[in-house]
Amino acid sequence: MSLTESDIIDRFFSAGGPKRADVLLGIGDDAAILGMPRDHDLVTSVDMLIQGRHFPEDMTAVDIGYRAMAVNLSDMAAMGAEPAWATLALSVPEASESWLSGFSTGLLGLAGLHGVALVGGDTVKGPLAMSVQIMGFVPCGSALRRDGARPGDGVYVTGRPGEAAAGLAIWRRGLQEPQGPAAGLLRRFTRPEPRLAEGRDLRGIASACIDVSDGLATDLGRLARASGAGAIIDLDALPMSDALSAVADPIEARSYVLGGGDDYELCFTVPQWALSDFERCASRWGCPVTAIGEICEQQGLYARISDEIEALEEGGFDHFR
Ligand code: ADP
Ligand code: MG
Q: Do residues 12 and 119 share a domain?
C-alpha cells in the first residue's frame, strides 16, 4: 500500500462524522471511551459485508459505504434504539484513494444524518470486506424485541417491501441507469432508509419488532417463532407499489413482496390496547405503514385469501436472496 494504515485513518476516517459530547475518547488511542447516559440500556449489533456475497462486485464505493452503515442502523431501528457510536473493521485489497474517499463519504454521510460518531476501527489489507459495529441506547427496559408478540396482535409493515429485491434484479440484468419506475426500484436497493424515528416511536406500543432484511415472510416467521406463536398474512392486504406493478406481473410482484430481501423496513406487532396510540404516532410518519395480518396461537406462517387460510411454506420465498 502506498498509503499507510495511519494515512488511511487520518485522511478518510478520523473526522469520524458528528462530534458527540459523550465520546470521551475517540479515534487515535487503543480503544474508545464512551459515556453512557444514565438509566439507559446499551444496545449493540454487528454486521459483516463481503463483496460478491452481500453486495454486487460492481457496486460503487459510496453505495457500499452507505450500505455498511444502513444495515446496522436498521438493526438499531428494529430495537427502538437511538444509535450513537460505531466502529469499522475494514479489509481492502489496495489503498485506492478514490475508493476510500467514496466509501467514507457514503458511510460517514449516513452516520452524520443520524448523529452517529465513528469512534474506532481496524484497517487491514485483504479481500474487500467490512464490518461495522453499532452501539446505541434505550431507556432501561424499553427496547423492542422479537419475542413479545401475542395471539390477536395486529401485524404491520412499513414502506413497500419487495421493491429492493426488484431493484437488485434490475441491477443484475445490467441496467445501471434505468429510467422511470425501474430507477426508483434500483434506488430502494442501493439506498435503503433505516426506519429509526419509526422504531423509536414504537417503544411502549409494539409488542414485537424485526427489520426485514431476508424477506417479509422469513422475518415475520422469525418474529412469530421467537414469540412462541404463529402469524397469518392477509395476501390481499399486502402493500403493492406502482413501481413494482409496473415491472412485474401480479404473481411475481407478490413473490417480491413476501420473499424479496434487502428492504430494511420494520415488521412489528401491535396489541389491541395500543392501537389508538399507534395510529396517532403512525399518522406523523413520513413512510407508509400497512396492516398485513395478525398473530395466531398455532405456530407457523399462514396466508389468508378471501377467508381461506393456508399454510405458507416458510423459507419458500428464499430464492430472491
Ligand atoms: P491498534 O494497533 O492499537 O489497534 P490501529 O493502528 O489499528 O491501533 O488504529 C489506530 C487508531 O485508529 C485506533 O484508535 C483505531 O480505533 C482507529 N482506526 C483504525 N482503523 C480505523 C477505521 N477503519 N475506522 C475508524 N477508526 C480506525
Ligand atoms: Mg488495530
A: yes
